[in-house]
Design a protein that fits this description.
Blueprint lengths: L1 H14 L17 H7 L3 E6 L2 E7 L5 E4 L1 H4 L14 E4 L5 E11 L2 E6 L22 E6 L7 E12 L8 E4 L11 E4 L4 E8 L7 E5 H14 L5 E2 L3 E5 L2 H7 L5 E6 L4 H5 L6 E5 L2 E2 L5 H12 L6 E10 L2 E10 L1 E2 L16 E3 L4 E4 L3 H6 L8 E3 L7 H4 L7 E5 L2 E2 L3 H13 L5 E7 L2 E7 L9 E5 L3 E2 L3 H10 L3 E6 L4 E2 L8 E3 L10 E4 L12 H12 L3 E5 L3 H7 L7 E2 L3 H9 L3 E2 L4 E4 L2 E4 L4 H15 L1
Parallel strand pairs: 28-30, 28-33, 29-31, 30-32, 33-34, 34-38, 35-36
Antiparallel strand pairs: 1-2, 1-4, 2-3, 3-6, 4-5, 5-6, 7-8, 7-10, 8-9, 9-12, 10-11, 11-12, 13-20, 14-15, 15-16, 16-17, 16-18, 18-19, 21-22, 22-23, 23-24, 24-25, 24-26, 26-27, 37-38
Helix pairs in contact: 12-13
Length: 617
């Protein structure tokens, strides 16, 4: 009301030609110098191949908090995969390579680690639970094109619940510009009360901030487990007891259980639709608004997985309401499904050669798509004119068996299907559940590489995209041999038909050589065994193919290959140029019998493998 009165007063004075009355608005107050000195060294810029953001240091040995969306990779089929090459830039322009310890998209929090030779300055956490609308705050970040920005404002709302987030968020008019996501929101004492997540553009100038008590829970989980350990008793849905419901149900307080999934842990514990939860672990609980309902969800999710939760319940009976006690063991919540702007936490697997995308089934899928209880894998939309579409598979089908063998999850499905693909079965029988009907169909793979013997050389360390490459080569019927230095390379246990040591390679048994990429691929640039294999394959004019940094291995092995048009990852482009190679920067490059690929993401791998199949045919 005071603000409205002041505005009318200003309008009146301006109309009379008087000087405007200065408002004591928080936006125009100076940021205290001690806050700037305390905060500035602990705020960092974060950059990677797909984007940028901000973060803040929380431990002297290099743990850094930021948003999940700041470090998430660009793979639409794997929302759990972080960006590959993340750089943290300090206030004094020092740069560090960072690794992601874990991240979550809702709440939107990630934890990074850098290795610093000296102790780092850190932020101090405040108490976001006591944050008040109208209090003065400061947002700090590193928006695009600026080293560091401080902006001041107020908390204009501390209970926003309409953004489809798992927790409530705070709203501020302190400017949060693009690139400032993941930066801290401080109070006037320099204590962090929130993590800035995004801002709106335009005249409204509204930004949103995750309360720091929520961030702190994620920090401990990501540090200790690499993921958000969300506690749950699956699966039930609750509703706030607004005034009309309280009158109809004749209760004063509590939380209404609206739905309980049949045969779920919640149902087995004794929870029923219509129950009113009045106490949790002995403490009274109630929700009359969406804010209080989110606080109940968060309080449950924040408990320890494996502990027992006890609910005191009012249950309708002939005599009004009877008191019932229900207890259940808390489980880790299943991965969340995509919804709205949130990508969820469920990976989509795909056999491109079959046109068959699929994913694991969670309870939320069964409710959302009205699925039956059959175990198996959930089909996503098949590619047009693919073996999967010709088999008449449709989105939300459940594949329950392959070749007469029951499959219960993604792992068993892949194992059974790939065994049939490796045997090059002309037809692979599937048992499918579609709503109320169980039926049978068959995949007829193309096996475009059926006559090709492919040697895959894996460098030390965690090999990039190895699972995708091997899976697709098997699905196309190739005979695979993987060569590596024993004990130094991390390989998937599936799909490898034959694994040998580098010194056991026989060129006579090779039609195609494929060199893979890893963070330690530079060790193969001087590995004589690998270089000699490349020379021998080149001399026989067989297909030489390489991904990412392994393209440099080709250049190191054979000077003649410098004349070929090649591509590689952006990270290794400088090395290729320094060696005077004909680097083009394309996603895939083919020159005679030499095929190279950037390998930067899943789509780049797909294009590379399509070109490989064409070259080998």
């Amino acid at each position: 009301m005071k603000i409205i009165i002041l505005l009318f007063l200003l309008i009146g004075l301006v109309a009379r030609g008087a000087a405007p009355v200065p408002l004591d608005d928080a936006q125009y107050q100076d940021i205290p110098e001690h806050v700037v000195r305390m905060v500035d060294p602990a705020v960092v810029a974060i950059q990677h191949e797909g984007g940028a953001g901000s973060g803040f240091i929380v431990t002297t040995d290099g743990l850094i908090l930021t948003n999940g969306h700041v470090v998430r990779g660009n793979d639409p089929e794997d929302p759990t995969k972080p960006a590959r090459s993340i750089t943290v830039i300090m206030h004094d322009d020092r740069k560090f390579v960072a690794r992601v310890l874990g991240f979550c998209m809702d709440p939107d929090v990630a934890l990074l680690r850098i290795d610093s030779p000296t102790p780092l300055m850190t932020v101090q956490f405040g108490d976001s639970r006591s944050a008040q609308t109208g209090q003065r705050v400061f947002a700090v970040g590193t928006p695009h094109g600026f080293k560091r920005t401080f902006s001041s404002g107020i908390l204009s709302n501390v209970d926003r619940t309409d953004l489809n987030t798992f927790t409530k968020v705070m709203q501020t008019d302190a400017a949060i510009n693009p690139g400032s996501s993941g930066g801290p929101l401080f109070d006037r004492n320099g204590l962090v009360i929130g993590m800035n997540t995004y801002g709106t553009r335009g005249a409204d100038n509204i930004g949103f901030t995750i309360p720091i008590h929520v961030v702190e829970k994620l920090y401990h989980d990501l540090r200790d487990h690499g993921r958000f350990m969300r506690a749950d008793v699956p699966l039930f849905i609750v509703r706030a007891l607004y005034d009309e419901l309280r009158a109809v149900l004749d209760v004063e307080d509590g939380i209404l259980v609206e739905y309980v999934m049949a045969d779920s842990p919640a149902a087995e514990a004794g929870l029923q639709a219509g129950d009113i939860i009045v106490k949790q672990n002995g403490e009274e609980i109630s929700a009359r608004s969406s804010v209080e309902l989110l606080e109940f969800d968060w309080a449950l999710a924040s408990l320890q997985v494996g502990d027992t939760v006890v609910w005191d319940i009012l249950r309708e009976s002939d005599n009004g309401h009877e008191s019932v006690t229900v207890q259940a063991v808390l489980q880790e919540a299943e991965p969340t499904v995509a919804g709205g702007v949130t990508p969820g936490e469920i990976r989509v697997e795909k056999y491109d050669a079959l046109g068959l995308p699929f994913t694991q089934i969670v309870r939320q899928h069964r409710i959302q798509y009205a699925l039956q209880d059959d175990p198996g894998v959930l089909v996503r939309t098949p590619d047009n004119a693919s073996p999967a579409s010709r088999a008449q598979l449709e989105q939300h089908d459940i594949i329950t068996a392959v070749g007469g063998v029951a499959v219960h999850d993604v792992s068993s499905f892949r194992d059974v299907l790939e065994s049939r693909l490796a045997a090059q079965d002309p037809f692979i029988e599937l048992e499918v559940r579609r709503r109320q009907i169980t039926w049978r169909t068959a995949l007829a793979p193309y096996y475009d590489l059926a006559d090709q013997r492919i040697l895959v050389i894996a460098p030390p360390g965690d090999v990039h995209n190895m699972d995708q490459v091997l899976r697709e080569l098997v699905a196309q019927g190739a005979t695979l041999t993987v060569a590596c230095a024993t004990g130094e390379t991390e390989l998937p246990s599936r799909v490898i038909q034959d694994q040998i040591a580098l010194d056991d390679v026989s060129i006579e048994d090779i039609d195609v050589l494929l060199l893979m990429d890893s963070e330690q691929v530079d060790q193969h640039w001087e590995e004589e065994l690998v270089l000699q294999i490349v020379r021998d394959v080149h001399a026989e004019e067989k297909i030489l193919s390489a991904l990412g940094g392994s393209v440099i291995t080709l250049l190191a092995a054979e000077p003649e290959l410098m004349e070929k048009s090649i591509t590689t990852s952006t990270v290794h482009s400088g090395e290729a140029i320094q060696r005077n190679a004909r680097y083009t920067g394309e996603t895939v490059e083919k020159d005679a019998h030499v095929l190279t690929g950037s390998g930067v993401d899943r789509q780049a791998i797909r294009e590379f493998l399509r070109q490989l199949a064409r070259s080998a045919r």
